[in-house]
Amino acid sequence: MKKYLILIVALILGSILRLWQLSAVPNGLTWDEAAIGYNAYSILKTGRDEHGAFLPVVFKSFGDYKPGAYIYLTVPSVAIFGLNEFAVRFPSALAGILGILGIYLLTKTILSLGSKTTSTELPSQLSALAFAISPWSVHFSHGAWEVNVFSTLTIFALYYLLRFIRNKSSLYPSLLFACLSLAMYQAAKLLTPLVFLLFVAIYWKDFWQEFSKYLNPGKLLRLAPFILFGAWIFFGSLFGSAGNRLSTLSIFNYKPNLAEKALPIDGVGSLAIPLFHNQTELSTSLVLSRYMWHFSPEVLFYEGSIITERGHIPGLGILNPLEFILLTFGFIWLVRQLAPGTHDSPSKSTLLILGLLLIAPVPASLTLAEFSTVRALFMAVPLAMISGIGMYYLLRLLRLMVLPLFLLYFLLVFYVFDSYFLHSQTAFSTEYNYGYKQVVEIIKENPTKRVIFTDVFGQPYIYYLFYTAFDPKTYQASDGFVDGGLDVGKVNKLANVEFRQFSSPEIMTEKDTLFVGSEGNINNQFDITSPNIALFRQFQTPDNHIIFRVIKTKP
Fold it and tell me: What is the spatial distance between Cα 48 and Cα 471, in angstroms, rounded to a whole number?
């Protein structure tokens, strides 16, 4: 046990950080989280999703289509814990914990490929520790993020691929995890093949030697289910209605107008070819600029204007600020392995780790968003490896002299998570739709003939379904979802609840009705002392910003 002390500490600490206050931090649910939870509940009770589709592989959600693997992972969680925030987020938290073990196994395997002299145990355990306390990983383990589970699945897919290359495992476990990653997250359709190609290209000779053993009818037949399933998921999410999300978010569908003053620069005349001012050049420039942003200190180490509050710990970047030092020494150690006279295997290890880092931002760079901490989350994997190697290299160079730096680093870790768990709720409240749970509780406690619920914040019906555990059979029978174009749509009415806007005069004329509105629907001039008002409540964010106001009229 002493040999694995750091790994054990990493697993315990990482589990605490990912499970503590899982229901309450962040202090609300996103629309997608509520939809995941209710669809898992619907599958559990009826075998069908909210729209009545029987065990779908791809789920329709607010007019969008998304892979359904996370929803199916949530089904047993809802069965055990009930329909609540903890159940929805638990699969992601568990994936984050397993990812710590996966980082250890993958790093150790990469560093030990054919190497007889390079130490592997300590840097691998330190990489697991770096991942355990990574603010990026912890934050995304505190939400129902498919990308977080995808990252863990990909870690294990690559680990078993390397074991296959080393003749220590069959190919089937790696293919299984790869197929599951494709079913988990849209960006996997690009990222999973790219990282597999990286590993195969670097170890092509060893890979082909092992893979050639599968080139017989019996073993090829066993590979067929994995190939067919992967192809089905891959092409099914690229074409048809399920591919709408990819086509909409792709930067290549963005066609900005070229500046008229720039067009004549390349030449004059009808036969002139615009070499430098054209759509291809502009798209390439946009992709490269988005790609480079992922390595910006503004993004990595301190809060930048392009990061949404939902995607990081408020007031901070996506990494511990002092991790810059660990990453620097980790890069130095890796680059030294490429120097002439070093062993070949460490050089390939360096290429694998740095290759993972360079490939990880590619899917996020092909979208319209300048930077997305969601789509770029897999970067946390190679960054944790490099940080762990940096810790190891610092220990080798400075020995006990490095203790003050490590002490400062872990004090900053304490500060980061103190900020996350105790002081981030003000920023998270609007990003995570704080207030819906409290409002639905008021509706449940005050039955009325009619409820009119504002839709100004978008998709209130899914929160009503979620927090009332609305009977899925009843909802499926009266599915009132109205498509409103790509990635939109709404439900106008559900039982006695209407989801729409309303005005103050309507409140004065309706009896036995509960009105749930924003400050715009029920303004400060509204007379709450009127004789027909039976109840008035308002709900505020932690910084006292009014979200909802609730009025109940008398029968």
Answer: 12
Q: Is 330 exposed, middle or buried (0-12, 13-18, 19+ CB in 10 A)?
A: buried
Confidence of residue 186 (pLDDT cuts 50, 70, 90): confident
User: Cα–Cα distance between 120 and 283 in angstroms, integer?
Assistant: 42
Q: In this model, does residue 323 exceed pLDDT 50?
A: yes
Beta strands at 493-494 and 497-499: parallel, antiparallel or unpaired: antiparallel
Place of tokens 């990286």: 198
Angle at 136 between CA 134 and CA 142, to 5 degrees: 105
Length of the chain: 555
Please tell me the predicted confidence (pLDDT) of residue 504.
82
In this structure, the strands spanning 450-453 and 513-517 are: parallel
Question: Residue 540 belongs to what H/E stretch?
Answer: strand 533-540
pLDDT tens per residue across span 393-407? 998 888 878 888 888
| Model confidence pLDDT, tens digit, residues 98-109 | 999 999 999 999
| Contact indicator for 330, 389 with CB cutoff of 8 Å | yes
Q: Count, in order, helices (H) and strands (E) of the chain.
A: 24, 10
Quote the tokens at residue 491.
């439900």
CA separation, residue 43 to residues 58, 88, 112, 328 (Å): 13, 14, 44, 48
Strands 64-67 and 481-483: unpaired
Q: Where are the domains of the chain?
A: 431-553
| Structure-token match 């995607």, residue found | 311
218 CB-near residues (< 8 Å, 6+ apart):
none
Q: Is the C-alpha dihedral spanning 354, 359, 365, 367 positive or negative? A: negative
The pTM for the full model equals: 0.89
| Side-chain-facing half-sphere of 295: CA atoms under 13 Å | 14
